[in-house]
Amino acid sequence: MIAKVVVDVPTMQTDKPFSYLIPNEFASLVGIGMRVHVPFGKSNRLMQGFIVDIVSITDAHIGQDEIAVKTLKSISEVLDFEPVLNDEQLELAGAMRQTVFAYKISILKAMLPNLLNSSYDKVLTTTDLTIANRYFDGKKGKRFSSLDKQAQALMMKLHRDGKIKLSYIAESKAAIKVVKRVSLVDIDLLNDLELTARATKRLELKQFLQAHLAGDDWSYTELVAMFSREVIKFFISKNILKLTEIEVSRAKDYFEKVTPDDHKVLNPEQMVAYQAITQSQDKTFLLEGVTGSGKTEIYLQVIAHAISQGKTAIMLVPEISLTPLMTNRFIARFGDHVAIMHSGLSDGEKYDEWRKIVAGQAKVVVGARSAIFAPLKNIGIIIIDEEHETSYKQDSNPRYHARDVAIWRAKYHGASLVLGSATPSLETRARAQKGVYQLLRLTHRANSDAQLPVIKLLDMRQHLTDQSGSFSKLMLDKISEKLAKHEQVVLMLNRRGYSSFIMCRDCGFVPDCPNCDISLTLHMDTKTLNCHYCGRTQPIPYRCPNCESSQIRYYGSGTQKVEAELLDLFPDARILRMDVDTTKKKGAHERILSAFGSGEADILLGTQMIAKGLDFPNVTLVGVINADTALNLPDFRSSERTFQLLTQVAGRAGRAQKKGEVLIQTFNPDHYAIQLAGTQNYEAFYKQEMEFRRKLNYPPYFFTVQLVISHQDEAVAVKKSYEVMALLQEQLSDQARLLGPIPKPISRTHNLYHYQLLIKYRFEPGLEKALNTVLDMTQARENKALRIMIDNEPQNFM
Ligand SMILES: Nc1ncnc2c1ncn2[C@@H]1O[C@H](COP(=O)(O)OP(=O)(O)OP(=O)(O)O)[C@@H](O)[C@H]1O
Ligand SMILES: [Zn+2]
Fold it and tell me: Domain 2-87+97-116 falls in which CATH fold?
């Protein structure tokens, strides 16, 4: 038999399966979707790969020149007992390869938890020592890769036949959490055990065991603490005690903390949506519901319905809203049928959740982008909350969009797909307009006491005179008013750090990053100038490096400065700051939110992180300190982003009985994105923005592909960009439009110069081939230091 293996070498030449002989001793053990080690290249270095097909020798098509089968290399090791990738995933990878322009191997790897992609020591442990000992020189654990090929095959066979039980096969020690338990094997042996009076600890343990016979096992760690390791070992060596290792899920404690919760009675609008979704199959819905309209409640009930039909569900939420606040709502309804996947988990924890899904124990997977690959069987419903969020697009290879994967998987399973948002992406809303998706709308808040907040735009051009620091007078008055009433305030400033840049008043010098073409941001807490692109930090200069003047001033406010201003203005207020800098530590994000939720603070100040998902009844004022930060970015979606962000953050106010107010400070009060966010009128925004997109031939009227060509030497980057451009012009039809090459808005980062090209097209048969040719360019020796990034439907132009 011959295995077709995709090896872990991301190049065009290796972007196809290679044939390997399956040695006889592995014949009954290998399967499609398993990981293997295979010798690769001239040096026969062992590489990891995935078996994507198994064919008989006669059927095998081995290269064009029919190399003799006997020259084929053999698989060296089989790494799995069960496939880690299933048929659906392999098929999906094939489909993604055509639109994502990343190599197959990076797509396959993206579907698996990290732990299965890393190099590791494979440890194989048996619970039944007697049988294992017969084969493996008395050692309990044995590194898998150090076993010879036959021993390995035999081990797997014994496992398959159920003759030996493998307690675990670990990818690394961190992969599986085990607790050691000690149990009493033989009471008679215990009673007969003769001990001298001097062996006090041993006597104590004997008495302890005799007194506690009822409890059948004990924690090894606790026993060791009481009686010492030596004493326990002694009892084990006498076959009186037995040590076992039990695998435990790291998430277990978490589930036990959450109190179960029941469904709410749906209001009429929610009911209409619920019925439409549950009575359909194989359909995509856009659930367009204003903030606080109870979309999450619909998700919960739709999932419950799928489970009642014996099906499973995937619930995607943006990474940032994957807080316990959100996940607890799911655990409260579905208990430990829920598996949670997000980047805050350790590799080991992620692996636990993945195995729970593979084993069929999880019925609902709640997670961020990559959870869309969860290997659930029999999916009945997929939900993407806040579907417009850019975090659903991966911004490194493979650059896939979770929404596209969701559409594919829903079709594969005959499942329904729900895309939910208060501010849908234009692409999605336009598809609903055309009837590709069914549009469901929720027009008012779910909680019958709650109203949408009243929004006021503050023209900062007029307020310049009465402005103290970052705040207009009205904003300050409102904050005082709310503080006096013991209500809570959320303030958003979408810029972290202290100042956006520093400048010498005498010569105009602005320090910028030597690696990136961007000015450094002042951070007061660390007393440094930081680059927000490459992370470089340097001390704050007190004299201008250019002219030695001491007239250095700070310009533009970040969250740190506004926090300092607030502390000055409201010395009694309790303030929490939430931005990338305060949430670096694991769990910090949750701690800040739960402190705010339980009323330990009066003001929550943060970047856009605070705009989503928060459902705190005591928040009656939302203040946006500068609405314009995203508006002037050179990105055709800047209005859309601004509208979405303002609408989302405004939606945090007045979610329960108390009336909500929103104040938005802006220098562009007449801009339609800000005007319409002010009236929370998504539909009007959609119409106006569509008009703009149509005129300029942007999505959703046209499709886009961005290419970024990067090199350390700017001249090379330019030259190669023109080569790429020429290649595209030659291969694409006339109706595709090419823009560029132009430098990226931030033209240099990490010491590389970036040039970009944009393809706009409606229908372009030559696209796939042309882009693959471009992808292939980097293979040429002369292009070694060149980087070409292909981004199909780019979401970010900075
Ligand atoms: N049918 C209902 N009856 C009473 N309260 C409800 C109902 N549905 C939802 N709620 C409550 O209304 C509030 C808002 O609901 P939910 O968080 O589900 O809205 P959402 O549309 O997901 O919000 P957002 O998009 O703004 O985050 C919650 O406190 C929720 O418990
Ligand atoms: Zn930098």
Answer: GIY-YIG endonuclease (3.40.1440)
Give the pLDDT score at 252.
55
What is the pLDDT at residue 81? 76
Q: Look at residue 67 in the predicted model and tell me its pLDDT.
A: 54
Q: For residue 776, give both structure tokens.
A: 């292939």
Predicted local distance difference test score (pLDDT) of residue 704: 92
State if residue 749 touches ligand 1 by the CB under 6 angstroms criterion. no
| Per-residue confidence (pLDDT) for residue 51, from 0 to 100 | 94
Q: What is the pLDDT of residue 175?
A: 43
Quick check: CB of 89 below 6 Å from ligand 1?
A: no
Record: fold of 253-442:
Rossmann fold (3.40.50)
The answer on whether 570 is annotated among ligand-binding residues is no
> pLDDT at position 129, please?
45
CATH code matching the domain that covers 703-792, chosen among 3.40.640.10, 3.40.30.120, 3.20.20.70, 3.30.70.600: 3.30.70.600
Residue 590 Cα distances to 297, 315, 726, angstroms = 22, 20, 51
* CA-to-CA separations, 568 to 562, 571, 575, 669, in angstroms, rounded: 10, 6, 11, 28
- Predicted-complex ipTM score: 0.96
CA distances from 356 to 332, 341, 361 (A): 18, 11, 5
The b-or-e profile of 379-411 (16+ CB within 10 A means b, else e) is bbbbbbbbbbbebbbbeebbbbbbbbbbbbbbe
Q: Is 644 in the pocket of ligand 1 (CB under 6 A)?
A: no
Tell me, what's the pLDDT at 40? 87
Nearest protein Cα to ligand 1, atom 30: 294
pLDDT of residue 400: 96
Cα→Cα distances 535→111, 272, 468, Å: 29, 49, 32
Please tell me the residue having the least CA distance from ligand 1 atom 27.
Answer: 613
**Residues 524/564, Cβ–Cβ less than 8 Å:** yes
Q: Is 743 annotated as a binding residue?
A: no
Using CA atoms, how far residue 113 sits from 109, 337, 358, in Å, is 8, 19, 12
Residue 517 beta carbon below 6 angstroms from any ligand 1 atom: no
Ranges of the chain whose pLDDT falls below 70: 12-14, 58-70, 118-152, 155-178, 213-216, 246-257, 321, 463-468
Measured CA to CA, the distance from residue 522 to residue 530 in angstroms comes to 6
pLDDT at 111: 94
What is the reported pLDDT for 540?
87
- Quick check: CB of 559 below 6 Å from ligand 1? no
What pLDDT shows up at residue 155? 67
Residue for token digits 């969860």? Answer: 374
- Judge whether 774 and 763 are in contact, CB under 8 Å: no
Give the pLDDT confidence score for residue 66 in this predicted structure. Answer: 52
User: Is 534 annotated as a binding-site member?
Assistant: yes
Alpha carbon 24 to chain centroid distance?
Answer: 41
Sequence ranges of the domains in the chain = 2-87+97-116, 119-171, 178-247, 253-442, 454-499+556-690, 703-792
CA–CA distance, 135 with 431 (Å, rounded to integer): 62
- 649 near 610, Cβ under 8 Å? yes
Distance CA 261, CA 640 (A): 36
Class of domain 178-247: mainly alpha
One fold for both 178-247 and 703-792?
no
- Highest CATH level, class, for 454-499+556-690: alpha beta
Please tell me the predicted confidence (pLDDT) of residue 208: 86
Q: Is 547 annotated as a binding residue?
A: yes
